Amino acid sequence: MIEVRDLTKRYGDRVAVDGLSFTVEKGAVYGLLGPNGAGKTTTMNILTGCLAPTEGHALIGGHDIFEEPMAAKRLIGYLPEQPPLYMGMTVREYLAFVARAKGMKLSALEGELDRVMAVAGVTDVADRLIRNLSKGYRQRVGVAQAILASPEVVILDEPTVGLDPLQIIEIRELIRSLGREHTVILSSHILSEVQAVCDRVLVIHKGRLVASGTPSELEARLAGQVTFAITVKAAPLEAREALEAVPGVQDVAVEAGEDGRCAVTVAVSGEAADMDERLSFALSDRHIPVLRLTREQATLEDVFLALTQDGGKEADEHVGDL
Predict the structure, then answer these.
(1) N or C: at which end does the chain have fewer Cβ atoms within 10 angstroms?
(2) Any bridge partners for residue 155, and if so which?
(3) Which are the contacts of 43, defined by CB distance < 8 A and separation ≥ 6?
(4) pLDDT tens for residues 61-114?
(5) Do strands 29-33 and 14-24 pair parallel, antiparallel, or not at all (unpaired)?
(6) Taking the chain, what is the end-to-end CA distance rounded to the nearest angstrom?
(7) How many Å apart are CA 249 and CA 246, to the nearest integer?
(8) Rounded-to-integer distance, Cα 229 and Cα 264, Å
């Protein structure tokens, strides 16, 4: 449905998007995930034709957004981070204005307004001025204008920013419902949001794609490292030597504590299912008392932090696999 090829956007010496390439299949909710300043909004502005790239192409339904802008834009509904609302209009007046701007026939106008207001949950405020609505309702009105005329692709830039917890839950439920009828792309820097609503995730850092896949794929394929937190009663050097001798151990970090105790963190290969037994036996063979031993699997949050804090150095190893 969407194909991005070697997309690059430069502002002078600053590179906002750096050779970005990905595809979006029809009928799914995609999350564009990355920290603030990663290039998410710039990418969305290019996809919607609001901003020209320095290099590369963006195709919507086979139409290049800049070579065939009208054909491409007919397939897109867009909600920017700041919804383009006219505060002096009522909800119905505003949506009618947007519908006419999209070229909708007057004969279909009333039915379409009723439809999008019902989907977005704003029917009960249809005749209220937008300036008098809560931020949550304004966001819903923004979603309603984005889905007017039933576009195949709905693009939402940070759709829950500034909302309270209840409003966030409501907007996420709305996004999930949109995914049943449209291809949806949403940007966010909030990992829990992407996990809650998205079928697939595209992780962007410094304008580059550093990982992609379903949330479970990212956890399984990128969060492969397993660590063990162990508390022992032994000298730090003794504990380190005992654990470093275990096959499969990648790294051992030891911190001396009180009463002769040590806190040890052991990083191992995620494939070693019986590693907890190996570690226990290695310590008992040295007559080292084990006071605590827990296994900790890396989470999707750990993966996200690793990818976006180290500049995506792992990306070249993983992005092609997902």
Answers:
(1) C
(2) 78, 185
(3) 4, 7, 17, 20, 32, 187, 204
(4) 999 999 999 999 999 999 998 899 999 999 999 999 999 999 998 889 999 999
(5) unpaired
(6) 19
(7) 6
(8) 6
Give 319's contacts (C-beta < 8 A, 6+ positions apart).
209, 210, 211, 212
User: What is the greatest pairwise CA distance in the chain?
Assistant: 85
pLDDT at 128: 98
- What are 301's two structure tokens? 């949050």
One DSSP character per residue, 241-297 reads HHHHTSTTEEEEEEEE-STTEEEEEEEE-TT-TTHHHHHHHHHHHTT--EEEEEEEE
Convert the pLDDT of each residue in 258-298 to its tens digit.
889 999 999 886 556 688 899 999 999 999 999 999 987 66
Q: How many CB atoms lie within 10 A of CB 276?
A: 17
pTM for this entry:
0.74
Q: How far is CA 102 from CA 46, 117, 130, 148, 200, in A?
A: 19, 17, 20, 8, 30
Which domains occur in the chain, in start order?
2-221 (3.40.50.300), 225-297 (3.30.70.260)
DSSP 90: B
What is the three-class DSSP state of 86?
Answer: coil
CB of 40 within 8 A of CB of 230? no
Q: Which of 99, 297, 270, 77 lies closest to 182 in space, CA to CA?
A: 77
